[in-house]
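Hi V.,

You were right to ask for the full record rather than a summary. Here it is.
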Amino acid sequence: MSSGRMASGQGWAMVLATSALSLVLSAATWGAEEAAAAAGQTAAESPAAPLTETPSADAAATESLNPPAAVLDPEYLEDLAVFLYWWYLDEEDLDLGDRKGFVFRVRRLRPEADEADHSEWAEIRLPAFKLGVVVKRPDYVIEETGDAVKGKMFRIVNLFRLDGTEDGEQETDGWQRVDLSLPDMLEEIYARYEHRRFPDAELTERLHRACRRAMNLDVNGREAGDQVMHIAPLSDVANEAWVYLENQCLLLQFTTDRDIEEPGGDPDGADMRVRGYNLLEDTITTPEEIPGTTQYMTMDQAGRALYNCLVLGKRLIVLNPEDAQETPIVKEFVVGRQ
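Predicted structure:
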């Protein structure tokens, strides 16, 4: 076993006390409100919240400027399609029909911002998926701390559904169209199953500490007993990490302002926001059951998150000795890999 794996396992060996099951952690999200303002739509979280409706055609603060080159890059658009395919799509969303090409429609967004905020925004629509996204590459300073946040990638901050009328010509007012081969796109999606990427030892340790900090537990502590956890693959287009704690039936989402994989983050995870869902108590059939709250996720959303954690994810089995001075035994397994 490599030292990196041991460091990763030791962190999660310390993760939770059973009494923390019913906690619902911080509901802070990563820019959904800003994204909604940029595209003229209602805020939604990704992916543990319902998608919003199509934004207004005359979305405020949008200028006729060319989209950022990074979001026109075919490799970036492929990453986006893979993420949406894994996290959102079902048979009602995927509208292939007689299509031979896969179309993306892209435009730059220019929301109002402080003079010191140089973040870039864009909107991308995927008619074949009946989905649209708002993405952001942050470039600003956190006023409270003075820390600079400068992202390398455009990350999703909001999603919305298309109503089927957006598949026509939509290349005015700053829109640009990117055409990719549909067979090549689907082949790329399927091929990604063999190239999943997971948090390294440093990030895994930060996730563990962020979780314990959010639950007001000692970040250096651990509970005796065996733990089983499943870590979902990371994506270049989503600034988040998901972990399912099997023993507690607890699903955790981690988000942050800075790039989540960027080295040098707060070692105790203080720069992360953590949200927890007890899947025995915090799942509902539809948001209309309990309107006006983000404490719950629908059964469909829980199922998709579990698919990414249990099926696509990395499984860690941590055997914790009673003696806290002894080193935990960590077993690691990824479906589809030897």
